[in-house]
Write a structure and sequence with these properties.
Distance between the termini: 34 Å
Shape: globular
Helix content: 40-55%
Largest sheet: 3 strands, mixed
Order of helices and strands: HEHEEHEEH
Amino acid sequence: SGMHLLAIINDVLDLSKAESDRLVLAEETVEIAPVVALSTSIVADMARKAGIEYSVAVEDALPAVRGDAPKLRQILINLLSNAFKFTPSGGKVSLTVARERGGGLAFRIADTGIGITRSRCRSSSRRSAKPTAGSPASTAASASGCR
């Protein structure tokens, strides 16, 4: 659809801005459950059409976070889309959102797809987020799809 194409174009533009350190985040208080619900509603049809079992588990009473809700939604959609893309029909993809011991939140996406080889994973994990001055250390995150 036209809206999906526009979203893809905006993703590419945002990626270009992020790589040149020009991406501006609109920080606000964000309730996580609605972000997950909207992201899930967008990708659920993708899973259904691909014949993939998709499950979501969101812990009750998660705290609000400071962030950019549209960017968080975009990140979830991109990660879930990749999981569906590399998971064969009949496979499973799950999203779990839970509170961590230190007070942070963990977004875990698991799938039965092909994954990334260990050697390739080591080279891709060298890239890291650049926290901005004054941002808490918990804003940096990493994802591992290594097998």
